[in-house]
Amino acid sequence: MAGLHGSTAGGLKTVTVGVLVLVVLRFASGNKNVNVFNREISNDTIKQAITILLTAMFIVFAGTITISILNPNVDFIDIVFEVSSALATCGYSLGITNSLTAFSRFLLIVIMFIGRVSTVTMTMAIAGKKFKQNNLINYPKADVRL
Hints:
This protein has one domain (14-131). The protein has 146 residues and is mostly helical. The two termini are 25 Å apart. The protein contains five helices and two strands. It has a two-stranded antiparallel ribbon with strand order 1-2. Helix 1 (14-28) crosses helix 2 (43-70) and helix 3 packs parallel to helix 4.
């Protein structure tokens, strides 16, 4: 897992996106292993990349829906841009922040903070200890056909 990215900065790094693209291409072609540059990408790395993507998508979705409910007068696409920009901590804005409610601005600040320390770090800080306790028991593997 440590090889996926070298810092705790948030967002989807190009390495994470690259791993996800390789996973999709390899699995779509029927390969079970994901290889690149004569190396196999571990299942732990693949799981971490998927976790980063899904967590980021959930944060953008939840933040966008919440802010759009609280601010029905603001265009939905503008809110999506603001929330995505906040999570990516890239500094872009459409200038709608002043027209948002105080709670919506606070929510954007929280999303910026999560984006800065990384989605995985925040998820582990909130739920990590609780879920680590479940790893003490190993259950039989199930073959689920998708």
